[in-house]
Amino acid sequence: MDVQAIKRTFGIIGTDPELDRAIGIAAQVAATDLTVLITGESGTGKDVFPKIIHQNSARKHGQYFAVNCGAIPEGTIDSELFGHEKGSFTGAVNERKGYFEIADKGTLFLDEVGELPLSTQARLLRVLENGEYIRVGGNKVMKTDVRIVAATNVDLPLAIEKGRFREDLYYRLNTIPIHIPALRERKADIPLLFRKFAADFAERNHIPPITLDAEAVRMLESYRWDGNVRQLKNVTEQISIMETERNITAETLAKYLPNRVQSNLPMLLPREDTPDGMSERDLLYRVLFDMKKDIAELRAQVNNMTSGRPMEPTYIPPTPVTQIGDTVVTRVSHDEPEMAEQEFAEFVPAEETHYGIVSSGSTSNSFSLEEHEKEMIIKALETHRGKRKDAAKALGISERTLYRKINEYGIDL
Hints:
Structural class: alpha/beta
Oligomer: single chain
Shape: flat
Number of helices: 17
Distance between the termini: 83 Å
Radius of gyration: 33 Å
Strand order of the largest sheet: 2-3-6-1-7
């Protein structure tokens, strides 16, 4: 069966090349017994592809079962898949056949396979390797001849890194990979799907179908559709029932598209303020602004020492921070990286090269300033009996800067 015939048979709408490629792979692999792993975002229609494989295989007259692994509680998933013996646990008043036994000679579709607990993953691996399994509470090894098709929207390689998914099981499942593109990656298909959903809803409810003007079509195509085809269908049906005007404008359509604020903030840190998940760009910005604060503190202290004024704590404007739920957002720059670099460059004049000391000045003067700074640090430490936190507060600098200066000057406490 060719791709177009499969589309007609299973009601698949779309002309995207990647979608056609996925259908072609499913049709090609159907004649074998190879295990297939279908990946893609939630709502892309992954559940159709196991049916394509089953109906075009030699097992089409056998049983076909679809199991949502994420919807079954961890305590009962083994019983559902492999069955159990009478009295194997509380409530097991009779023996029960599992899906592997019921679907023998047929096809078993394991949806959301990435949600399986590790113990169940080990059992599944044994079935894939030699077709053997044991019922819960039993001791008899049973055999099954079942074709496995699995699907997930989880990044399984990442789950493997985090210890949540077995690497050996992943390679067993991923014998033939099929990836379903997200709806935003097949923009030309979006108006086609909208018209199909609108026509089907109108026919079922005996109302005229809705249509879109040109601007509304452009809005439809440019929207992100995080929920993919499922979300598009829901929006289409909402508009069909709520709007009396059958020709939908962009203004009307906008009311049904959830607003998603696209933040240009380059840094988003967890409350623990750890660097996990931070990009190199985020880390660079953070270092630059820490340096900016330290330079301001040292500049003020050096100026005070050279002018003979008593040292005063320097106020450094804090980096803007916004609290959003359990997340702290640090605003570094609202535009391109060049703006952050420009802001940092403006703060540090070109003629200053070392913590506020002008490099064009005499060497002896710079040396005396450093000696003076070292002396002030030693005095502050002696005054506060070596307590660095109190000494840093008295000097008007951060404790981290004080630590660095102690090491730099080789101050022996």
